[in-house]
Each structure stands twice: as structure tokens, then as C-alpha cells.
User: Which sequence fits this backbone?
């Protein structure tokens, strides 16, 4: 069974930092690009960041570029989101998600969208 | 960025009803659309990929169609467990990945 489990959420003051982790299981982690997405209370889904299967390419949403960093450890099988300079508007449930594309199909990093999502971890930025 | 306009924002239907949602892209995105179902407190679940392909294990009452800028998602016969919010999402124009605003489906 393919599973993603996020951790690291919590309550933090504006301007502080938080590091989220995502633990995958049930699939070959190193073959898949990964995403972070978020959902503010009562709102829709927002894509936050993507990292390629091998960690060589990273993409960030305009709303978090310069403050958030996505990374992965393919030996420890873990995905990370380092969130610095947090703002009130970063309050949300954060989801990690696996991209449907597998690098085992053919070479390169292609984005096919998310086929498996975690349950999410809640981040509350409040003074 | 490609904007995805989803409608309606909410609807009420009875068990057994045919339910149709639409999503319009701000530019031609070919067939690069996914549809997701999200229940309260849960992460979204992929139902349809590539506009019309049923994801593994998803019941056949769910279907999708469309290409270019106009897309449709249909539940052929609504079941009680289908009560959820549904989102379309495009992956033709990246970054960023963008979503429609969602359609909340509840029971009449």
C-alpha cells in the first residue's frame, strides 16, 4: 500500500521557521518527483513546491519563493520542506504528494500531477 | 499561469442522480487535467488523470471528458459515499500546478 506520512507541523510565531518531513512507503521513492501543497482553512488547494526524482531540480510557488526550500534524501527516503520567515498567510494544512510520473518509464523529470497524497500536517502561524 | 475556473461551486443532489461538474482553463491545455475528490480532514484522492482516464481502483461511475479549454467530470449515479469536494487541476503549464476552486457536492 502506497502511503505518505507528514510530520513537523505546529504553532509558530511570524518570522520563525519550521521544517516539515514526509515519510513514504509502498513505492520506489527515488523514481518519483514529489510535491508539497497546502490548504488554508476553508479554502482550496494550492501547489507549493516540487522536487525532481533525483533532487536536481526544484520549483517553488511565487508565494513562498525565497522563504521555503524543498529537499529530499533518497537514501533515508524522506522529503522535506524548510519554511523560513513564516507569515500569517502560511497557516494551512500541508500535504506531501507523489507525482504520477516514474523515471523508470523513461528518462527525465515530467510532471503528471499528484496520484497519492498524505493526510497532511497543520501549520499555524500566530503571534 | 493557467487559471482553472470550476463550476458550480456547490450543488445538492439525490442518491442515484447524475452529477456533472465543469472546469474551464484560461488557455489550451490539451488533455492535461486531473480530477480529485477530497473528504473533510483527508488528503485528496486522484480519480481521473489525463482528462478521461480512470485512476486505479476508482469506481466506473466516475468519468471525465474534454480537451483544450473545456472539461467535464461526471458521476453517473451518485452514491452517499461520493459526498465530498471535487477539484480539477492542470499540469500542462508548469510551474505552477493550478487547481479549480472546487465543487462541494452534498445530498439533497
Assistant:
Amino acid at each position: 500500500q502506497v502511503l505518505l506520512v507528514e510530520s513537523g507541523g505546529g504553532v509558530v510565531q511570524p518570522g520563525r521557521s519550521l521544517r516539515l518531513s514526509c515519510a513514504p512507503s509502498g513505492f520506489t521513492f527515488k523514481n518519483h518527483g514529489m510535491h508539497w501543497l497546502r490548504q488554508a482553512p476553508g479554502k482550496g488547494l494550492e501547489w507549493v513546491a516540487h522536487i525532481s526524482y533525483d533532487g536536481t531540480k526544484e520549483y517553488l510557488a511565487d508565494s513562498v519563493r525565497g522563504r521555503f526550500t524543498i529537499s529530499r534524501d533518497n537514501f533515508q527516503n524522506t522529503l522535506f520542506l524548510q519554511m523560513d520567515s513564516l507569515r500569517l498567510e502560511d497557516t494551512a494544512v500541508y500535504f506531501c504528494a507523489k507525482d504520477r510520473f516514474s523515471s523508470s518509464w523513461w528518462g527525465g523529470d515530467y510532471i503528471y500531477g499528484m496520484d497519492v497524497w498524505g493526510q497532511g500536517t497543520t501549520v499555524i502561524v500566530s503571534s | 499561469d493557467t487559471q482553472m475556473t470550476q463550476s458550480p461551486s456547490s450543488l445538492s443532489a439525490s442518491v442515484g442522480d447524475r452529477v456533472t461538474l465543469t472546469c474551464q482553463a484560461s488557455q489550451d491545455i490539451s488533455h492535461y487535467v486531473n480530477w480529485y475528490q477530497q473528504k473533510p480532514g483527508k488528503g485528496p484522492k486522484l480519480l481521473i488523470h489525463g482528462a478521461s482516464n480512470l485512476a486505479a481502483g476508482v469506481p466506473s461511475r466516475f468519468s471525465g471528458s474534454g480537451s483544450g479549454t473545456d472539461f467535464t467530470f461526471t458521476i453517473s449515479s451518485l452514491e452517499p459515499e461520493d459526498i465530498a469536494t471535487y477539484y480539477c487541476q492542470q499540469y500542462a503549464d508548469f510551474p505552477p500546478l493550478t487547481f479549480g476552486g472546487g465543487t462541494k457536492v452534498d445530498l439533497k
Remarks:
- The mean pLDDT of chain A is 96.
- Chain A touches chain B through 24 residues (CB under 8 Å).
- The first strand of chain A starts at residue 3 and ends at 7.
